[in-house]
Each structure stands twice: as C-alpha cells, then as structure tokens.
Design brief:
With 462 residues, this protein is an alpha+beta fold. The chain contains 9 helices and 12 strands. It is 55% helix and 16% strand. The model has no long low-confidence stretch (mean pLDDT 88). It binds adenosine-5'-diphosphate.
C-alpha cells in the first residue's frame, strides 16, 4: 500500500471519479431543468388553447374537449379543470385517478393575473404533478396538471447510466493510473536493480541514461556521479595503501637485513652503533611517510582545519631561502631571490604554507645538478600573490607534469635522490585548501618552473 504505483493508481481513479461526477452532475442538473422547462411550455400551450376554446365556444365545448383530451393522453397522466372565482368546479376531465386533488391542490389562486406553475404530490402520484394556473374570463381559472412520471423515469434512467459509466471510468482510471505510474517508475526500478548489482557484483556498472524521462535521467546522472566519486575514492585509498605499504617495506627490509647480518657476525660495539643509527634513520623515514600521508588526508577532508591569519609570503620565502642556503652552497648552486622586498599577505595557515615553500624549494635544489641556479620570486598580481621557483635542473617529461602531484609518484630520473614522492602531493593539497593553485612547466635538461597562486589578503585595485 505504501508503493508509489498503488498511490498513483488511487489518485488517478479518485481524480477520474471526481471529474466525471462533476461532469455528470452538471449534465443532470441541466437535464432536469430542461425537462421542467419543456413540461411548462407544453402546459402553457395547452392552457392557451383551452382558454381560446372557452372564450370562443363556451363552457360546453370546453368540457367536451377536457374529456376528449384527457382520454387521448391518459386520464392518469393529465387532468383539466375550470374553476370559478370561488373555487367551484365548472368543468373537468375524468378525475377518478386524482382523489386527493381537492385537498392537496390549492383550489383557488386568487388575484393571479398571469399564468403560474406549481408542483404538487397528490396521492398515487409519487413522482409529482406539474400544474399550470391560467386566469381566464370572469375571474375563472383554468387548471391543467400533467404527471411528472415520464420525466422521473428519464432522470432515473440517466442516473442508472451514470452509475454504470462511473464504475467504468473508475476502472479505466485505476488501470491508466497503474500503467502510467509503472511506466514512470520503471526508471526508478532500473536504478534500484543497478544499485543492487553494483552492491553485489561490479562497481564499474552505471545506470543507462535516456530510458525514462528527464527526472529519471537527472536522478541516474546524480547516482552515476556519486558512483564515480566513490570509485575514485576507493582507487585513491588503494593507491595510498599500496604506496604506504611499498614505502614502509623498504626501510623495514633494510632494518631487518642489517639486524640479520649483525646476528651472524661477531659482536662488535661499532656495528651495533651503526645499526642503531640506521634504525633511527629508517624509523624517521617511516614516521615522516605516515605523518605526511596523514596530513594530506586530514587537509583534504578538512579534518584538520586551516588556521586563518594574515601571513606574509615574502617573509616566509626569505626564511626558507636562508634555511636552504647552506644546502645550495654545498651543491655549488646559486640561490637567488628576485623582486623587491614588500610584504605580500594572504590569509592562511603559516605552518602549512611554510611546508609548501620548503617542499618546492627543497625539490628545486635537490633536482638541480651542481653549478646550477635556483631563483625564487614573490609578486602580487590583481588579487593574487604569486610565488615562482625556477631551477636549471633535470626537468620533467611533459607526460609526467600532472602526475608528479600524485601521492608517491616519483619520476625515473629522480629515483637516485632521497624522497618519498609525497612533498608535492602535500603542497598541492595545502595550496588548494587555501583556494589557490600550484602549476609547473618544465623542459628536460633545461629546468623547471613551479608557480603557486594564492588569493591575496587585501586584493589590489590594479
Ligand atoms: P620527492 O620526495 O620524490 O621529491 P615530491 O612529491 O616532492 O617527492 O616530488 C615528486 C617528483 O616530482 C619527484 O620525485 C621528482 O621526480 C619530480 N620533481 C619535483 N620537483 C622537481 C624539480 N624541481 N625538478 C625536477 N623534478 C622534480
């Protein structure tokens, strides 16, 4: 009973019934009024004829005509009377079938100047009698009555037909409602079946479009989009799990190998010291991988909300350059800051923005061979603060430009350098959480340029 089909069926049947009742009722009312009008007209015509006869040929002729006419139309169906002003019957048709006429019909309608009508219910005439009163010469009154039996039968017949038609209409309405609702809901049914199949078998399945109206298509599209997103999330989860598992295996294998070698070799304190050093180093690596993975996930999902305070990016850049200068000097790299030293403020999380700058600058130095150059620059353009990191390093192949921002992705050319492939993924997550964008352009062998755009705290008017 709670199914939409059932409810739609009820609605359709109810609506059809209501509409047909209204229609039949209005027809019925006009039918009854029409019949009444026709009866009155006929009575008026007859009354006029009798009146003329009486005026021209007198009482005797009228009396004869009363009797003749009543017999030809049926003495149970009609009666005719001529009454004096005092109510005395001067002439009448056969009144044997109208016993209660005297008591029920107002004998005299005094002071009438024009014809008038009345419906009365004498004994034996259940359906009523329509009577016309017509004033004639000398204050006398002509009374003509006709039984409404014929009209009543006609109305009854009409009601019977209507009852049958209503039953038919109700049935049609119910069938139509059922068919229409089944058709309209077939898309929902398909959606349900697909959802069940997806749940049981295959996450690659999608609901086919274009088979059930616009609303169903919209619903299917929303459902398919949700599935795409779920599938992407599952894929990402798998990638992260695989990446973490892969990257944890190497340090753990190294620790295990070292420990094994130590077990079978003669006990030497230096070897143990070296082993302890390696364990600490590898543990740091593992902790760093776990921390970074967690931070990416928390920033992406909003579980660790960003602090929102004014942060001067040129200051952060200066601090980072200062920090990385010894590393650059070690590799005989020239590390330059371009542009004038003005404050460039964004609203953001200082600690996280520092990590972004450090990761990108670290990469620039790491992937630039000795003797190269790394340039950093901060500038403001319209409502954005832009950070640029240029290096003359190994470069990135065009097909890998997008992939380097994925978690755990490292290009083949960088495998010899230390790293875990999480630095740029974290940088992108943080920049996007701030409403910014990070992009890269690069040429193999010539170097790369990373650009970070963030919304400025106070948009400039330029
Ligand atoms: P990693 O720890 O490997 O540096 P990142 O996520 O920071 O991880 O970078 C991902 C990959 O992008 C790096 O392994 C490297 O292959 C490439 N990459 C990043 N920065 C540069 C750069 N400045 N020059 C060339 N390649 C780079």
């Amino acid at each position: 009973m709670r199914s939409l089909s059932f409810q739609a069926t009820l609605w359709y049947a109810g609506l059809f019934a209501l509409l047909s009742c209204t229609m039949f009722a209005s027809i019925y009312v006009s039918l009854v009024a029409g019949l009444r009008h026709r009866t009155d007209e006929q009575l008026a015509v007859s009354a006029k004829e009798f009146d003329t006869l009486y005026r021209v040929h007198g009482l005797g002729a009228l009396h004869d005509e009363f009797r003749r006419e009543a017999h030809s139309r049926g003495v149970r169906q009609v009666f005719f009377r001529l009454l004096s002003a005092q109510g005395e019957i001067l002439a009448a048709s056969d009144l044997r079938d109208w016993p209660s006429l005297e008591t029920q019909l107002p004998v005299v309608k005094t002071a009438i100047h024009d014809q008038s009508f009345e419906t009365v219910y004498p004994l034996g005439h259940r359906d009523g009698v329509r009577v016309i009163f017509l004033p004639t010469t000398g204050g006398k009154i002509l009374q003509l009555g006709t039984s409404l039996f014929g009209n009543a039968r006609l109305e009854e017949r009409y009601r019977e037909i209507f009852g049958r038609a209503l039953a038919g209409v109700l049935l049609c309405g119910a069938i139509l409602g059922w068919v229409v609702s089944r058709r309209a809901l077939s898309g929902v049914e398909r959606l349900r079946q697909t959802a069940i199949r997806i749940g049981n078998e295959d996450l690659d399945l999608r609901v086919p479009l274009g088979q059930g109206g616009q609303e169903i298509d919209d619903l299917s599209m929303a459902f398919n989009q949700m599935l795409d997103r779920i599938q992407k999330l599952i894929q990402e989860l798998q990638d992260v799990t695989n990446g973490v598992a892969h990257d944890l295996r190497s340090p753990l294998t190294r620790i295990r190998g070292k420990a094994e070698a130590l077990l079978i070799s003669p006990v030497e304190l230096d070897a143990f010291r070296e082993m302890a050093g390696l364990v600490i180093e590898e543990c740091d690596r593992v902790v760093s991988i776990l921390d970074t993975t967690l931070e990416i996930a928390q920033t992406e999902t909003g579980l660790a909300p960003l602090a929102r305070q004014p942060v001067d990016l040129s200051h952060i850049l200066d601090q980072a350059v200062e920090l990385f200068l010894p590393m650059a000097e070690n590799k005989s790299l020239s590390l330059e800051v371009l542009g004038s030293p003005i404050a460039l403020e964004v609203m953001g999380d200082k600690g996280r923005l520092q990590r972004v700058v450090a990761n990108v600058l670290d990469n620039a130095i790491k992937y630039t061979p000795e003797g190269g150059t790394v340039q950093v620059e901060a500038a403001k353009k319209a409502s954005q603060v832009i950070l640029i990191f240029r290096d003359t390093g190994i470069g990135i192949r065009p097909e890998e430009l997008d992939r380097i921002f994925e978690r755990f992705y490292r290009t083949d050319r960088s495998r010899s350098a230390p790293g875990n492939g999480l630095g740029l993924a974290l940088a992108r997550t943080i920049v996007e959480a701030h409403g910014g964008k990070i992009s890269v352009s690069s040429k193999i062998g010539l170097g790369s340029t990373f650009m970070i755009r963030l919304p400025a705290a106070t948009p400039s008017r330029v």
